[in-house]
Amino acid sequence: MEPKWLEWGQKLQAIAQNGLTYSEGVYDIERYKQLRAIAAEIVATYANVEHSYILDLFSQETGYATPKVDVRAAVFQDDTILLVKERSDGGWTLPGGWADVGDTPSEVAVREVAEESGYEVRPVKILAVYDRQRQGHPPLPFYTYKLFFHCELIGGSPSPSIETEEVGFFGEDSIPELSLGRVTRAQITRLFQHYRQPDLPTDFD
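Given the sequence above, the corresponding structure tokens read:
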């Protein structure tokens, strides 16, 4: 579970964002801006980062507040799973990233695998839809859902990208140090279970 301070900050930010979206009164708008600033102060204080940085992140969010969507692809080959090494933190993760407007979730998975690893894949099944806050990841300012697709390898060859510096397949007992903001060891273990037991239902929450 995420720390309570992050939950408070996210909920206050959502209330403020929704209020700024639908309010027309000058005084109501000012109150919601103040609430957003308080939410940013809570997150910045406990995360030990600059208040202005968090406030800027929150200020960029407009419209009705909804969770962000992170899509990940589980690509297996001979009882090994495809991982890419992130340039940003040196940790390994499943290919994936934020969903883009105009792409279906499975299209995001296919594109991210191609861009980050060089491989071509075909989506087979949605394995899990998780609430990130319940998965043991490090704190993130934004509320996020994580989608995991089982994808079948159909072509391509390993090719790092501007975001990734290495590409490889790893057995369950030889998983390298992970980029925990993106994927956890428990998630990879569960994905291997899905791979070995294809009839398992999709995980959720």
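The chain has two domains: 4-59, 68-204. Try to locate this feature in the token string yourself.
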